[in-house]
Amino acid sequence: MSIDIAWARAELASFLKLTELYSPPGLFSASSRLSNRGGEREIVASAQVVEQILDRVLPRWRTEIPDDRNKRVNRWCQHREAVQRVDAALLRDAEVRERLGDDAPQLSAAAMHRWVWDGARSLWGSGHFREAVTAAARKVNAETQNKVARRDVSETALFQSVFSKDAAKPGQSRLRLMADDNSDTFRSVHRGAMSFAEGCFAGIRNPNSHEDGLPELPEHEALEQLAAFSVLARWVESATVDTA
């Protein structure tokens, strides 16, 4: 898990301490709500960090963990249960993977290229994985348009143009992943980038967006699709713009 576990657990422990419930001295009314140890401002500040840890380790905590006790008991009940679950996961993650015999590297959506994760984040957190991939694809397309200053083409046609081996023309900038030295490597790299981009949009983005009634993507499949767009995004961002 690509996270500083010691730091994360310390943040979670601090939040649990701040939100611990107790009965203030002198309040005996049966209708009185329990109070938190920490002040509201202090708790809110801690929650800003804690929520990011929860989103990383347990992305669907807002929908998977009931929030009904927030109104009946205390507004931080849902957060506290999520924190307790995540703390246990962080504590035992390495042990569980070792015991189960699977200590392979893990890929986090949050480690994807920022264009991809920025596009997918909100939908991913609510479990809308297919829509999250589509949103990430739109973001990569838009950022590519921005880089080459074009709005006349998009998606497959855009990448066919920007990765073309032909020289740039007025209004048709190219993206160069390496200098044009007239080598087979130059032609291979750009032909591959063009084909890869076409596969991302024709094979992933279009079916996700245009096919009605498709079942929700399993999370691991959606993660693989995000990874494809992350590779494309890194190529685009690192490329040099060649103009006529």
UniProtKB/TrEMBL annotation:
Pfam families: Hypoth_Ymh
InterPro entries: CHP02391
This protein's UniProt keywords: Endonuclease, Hydrolase, Nuclease
Residue ranges annotated for the Conserved hypothetical protein CHP02391 domain, each copy included: 112-236
Superkingdom as given in the UniProt entry: Bacteria
MF annotations from Gene Ontology: endonuclease activity
Keyword Nuclease carried by entry: yes
Protein name as catalogued: Restriction endonuclease
Taxonomic source organism: Streptomyces parvus
